[in-house]
From TrEMBL, chain A:
<comment type="subunit">
    <text>Heterodimer composed of ETFA and ETFB. Identified in a complex that contains ETFA, ETFB and ETFRF1. Interacts with ACADM.</text>
</comment>
<dbReference type="InterPro" id="IPR012255">
    <property type="entry name" value="ETF_b"/>
</dbReference>
<dbReference type="GO" id="GO:0033539">
    <property type="term" value="P:fatty acid beta-oxidation using acyl-CoA dehydrogenase"/>
</dbReference>
<dbReference type="InterPro" id="IPR014730">
    <property type="entry name" value="ETF_a/b_N"/>
</dbReference>
<comment type="similarity">
    <text>Belongs to the ETF beta-subunit/FixA family.</text>
</comment>
<dbReference type="GO" id="GO:0005759">
    <property type="term" value="C:mitochondrial matrix"/>
</dbReference>
<feature type="domain" description="Electron transfer flavoprotein alpha/beta-subunit N-terminal">
    <location>
        <begin position="8"/>
        <end position="89"/>
    </location>
</feature>
<dbReference type="Pfam" id="PF01012">
    <property type="entry name" value="ETF"/>
</dbReference>
<dbReference type="GO" id="GO:0009063">
    <property type="term" value="P:amino acid catabolic process"/>
</dbReference>
TrEMBL record, chain B:
<dbReference type="InterPro" id="IPR009100">
    <property type="entry name" value="AcylCoA_DH/oxidase_NM_dom_sf"/>
</dbReference>
<dbReference type="InterPro" id="IPR009075">
    <property type="entry name" value="AcylCo_DH/oxidase_C"/>
</dbReference>
<feature type="domain" description="Acyl-CoA dehydrogenase/oxidase C-terminal">
    <location>
        <begin position="226"/>
        <end position="373"/>
    </location>
</feature>
<dbReference type="GO" id="GO:0006629">
    <property type="term" value="P:lipid metabolic process"/>
</dbReference>
<keyword id="KW-0285">Flavoprotein</keyword>
<dbReference type="GO" id="GO:0009083">
    <property type="term" value="P:branched-chain amino acid catabolic process"/>
</dbReference>
<keyword id="KW-0274">FAD</keyword>
<comment type="similarity">
    <text>Belongs to the acyl-CoA dehydrogenase family.</text>
</comment>
<dbReference type="InterPro" id="IPR006091">
    <property type="entry name" value="Acyl-CoA_Oxase/DH_mid-dom"/>
</dbReference>
Length: 132, 375
């Protein structure tokens, strides 16, 4: 999930373009012979997928603990060369942007709940709302 | 972190992260069980904390005294006692790096910078603390060796460390007769006293170091005969900044603990907000102490004439003020502050000794007074 627009697309787009399997929001990755076992963070909990390689994986923050930077590396960081590549060199057009933002809105405010008198009443209301 | 460069902020961040994750959760256990956290210190050394101001060609990080102060202050928020030992270790490695010849530097420094081996600084004796130049441990020249006889007291790391930087008498009385020798554990005639039971600094063992006809090769002498006292004092200038920095870290952590407690604890129907002025005093004094220490660090780095005096002033001021701050923080916790379940009492116990070692605060006053009255 990109930190600018939060779109959560790049990994998935890449997998589709390459026609490779994808394991996104990976919180645990285990290599097996011929494939990889990926445990994913999903809204309801965890989902485990077995993918054949090659595959596209995207990392969730639970995947690893970042290493500490060492003092010598911090000092070397300033001296590392920063190569600037113009987009044209990579055969990628720099503009116009291919994404257009149509609308940004807040989620609707939470509607009030309702208290019911009996279990039957509760079940009736849930069925009526199409929830069960 | 105001006034720091980008790099220094990065160093501080690594040190604070390390302190919070690798040290703070264990500081109480290390204190209670008197554990010398060798593995944790080696992890720190992997990040470059084993020889912070030692030259890179022998494994050091080649940073400045100010960078070092920032790092020790940050590490100290995790465990003051362990950080203080690390600063002593760093001081010893620097002494070998600076005053050793090429052969000695390459023989000792790399394994010390990685903390594969640990070091101890041996100056104090049962009969000479503040009057360090009157030390008695003798080193008789015999061919291409010295034979050492005598003992050192209160040696941090003593018995558990591998390399000992020992100030001993090769010549006549007074400072000019003192030389500096590097000893290694396992040398015949080198033994250790019992582990001392201390009020704080429990994550580092403290023992007497005993020399009985201990044979040391002349090739283990740092610098020239008679240079030892000077080497010891130069080591201490940096050491004083480091110890003061450890006090700063403890005080900083204690102020944060006090702040937290004041917002949580309610009496008479309100949070303990009435202590806000006391907290403000504590914070103000902490900043003042920190500025003294950082200023002294800069002066030492630049080799300024007044560096030694500034180091003494900074050590005196910071260790005294920070003890007061930690003590106040404990007071603000009320009865809870006295329980070992709460970290603040450990900071108080750990930094109490900073007002005593590496030159008592009385000796610091002597140094400053002498400088004033001579100049």
């Amino acid at each position: 999930q990109a930190i600018d627009d939060d779109c959560n697309q790049t990994g998935q787009l890449l997998a589709a373009m390459l026609d490779w399997p994808q394991g996104t929001f990976a919180s645990r990755v285990q290599l097996e012979s011929g494939g990889v076992l990926v445990e994913r963070e999903v809204d309801g909990g965890l989902e485990t997928l077995r993918l054949r390689l090659p595959a596209v994986l995207t990392a969730d923050l639970r995947l690893n603990e970042p290493r500490y930077a060492t003092l010598p590396n911090i000092m070397k960081a300033k001296k590392k060369p920063l190569e600037v590549l113009p987009a044209a060199d990579l055969g990628v057009p720099a503009g116009p942007p291919r994404l257009k933002v149509l609308q940004v809105q807040e989620p609707p405010p939470r509607a009030g709940g309702e208290k019911v008198e009996s279990v039957e009443s509760l079940l009736g209301k849930l069925r009526h709302a199409g929830r069960i | 972190s105001t006034g720091l460069t980008e790099d220094q902020k990065e160093f501080q961040k690594v040190a604070l992260d390390f302190a919070a994750k690798e040290m703070a959760p264990y500081m109480a256990e290390w204190d209670e069980k008197e554990i010398f956290p060798v593995e944790t210190m080696r992890k720190a050394a992997q990040l470059g904390f084993g020889g912070i101001y030692v030259k890179p060609d022998v494994g050091g990080s080649g940073l400045s005294r100010l960078d070092t102060s920032i790092i020790f202050e940050a590490l100290s928020t995790g465990c003051t006692s362990t950080t203080a030992y690390m600063s002593i270790h760093n001081m010893c490695v620097w002494m070998i790096d600076t005053f050793g010849n090429e052969e000695q530097r390459h023989r000792f420094c790399p394994s010390l910078c990685s903390m594969e081996k640990f070091a101890s600084y041996c100056l104090t004796e049962p009969g000479s603390g503040s009057d360090a130049a009157s030390l008695l441990t003798s080193a008789q020249r015999k061919g291409d060796t010295y034979i050492l006889n005598g003992s050192k007291a209160f040696i941090s790391g003593g018995g558990d460390t591998d390399v000992y930087v020992v100030m001993c008498r090769t010549g006549g009385p007074g400072p000019k007769g003192i030389s500096c020798l590097v000893l290694e554990k396992g040398m015949p005639g080198l033994s250790f006293g019992k582990k001392e039971k201390k009020v704080g600094w429990n994550s580092q063992p403290t023992r007497a170091v005993i020399f009985e006809d201990c044979v040391v090769p002349v090739s283990n002498r740092l610098g020239a005969e008679g240079q030892g006292f000077n080497i010891a004092m130069q080591g201490l200038n940096g050491g004083r900044i480091n110890i003061a920095s450890c006090s700063l870290g403890a005080a900083h952590a204690s102020v944060l603990l006090a702040q937290e407690h004041l917002t949580v604890r309610k009496q008479f129907g309100e949070p303990l907000a009435s202590n806000q002025f006391r907290l403000a005093d504590m914070a103000t004094r902490l900043v003042a102490a920190r500025l003294m220490v950082r200023n002294a660090a800069r002066a030492l780095q630049e080799g300024r004439e007044d560096a030694a005096v500034l180091c003494s002033m900074a050590k005196l001021f910071a260790t005294d003020e920070c003890f007061g701050i930690c003590n106040q923080a404990l007071q603000m916790h009320g009865g809870y502050g006295y329980l070992k379940d709460y970290a603040v009492q450990q900071f108080v116990r750990d930094i109490r000794v900073h007002q005593i070692l590496e030159g008592t605060n009385e000796v610091m006053r002597m140094i400053v007074a002498r400088n004033l009255l001579q100049g």
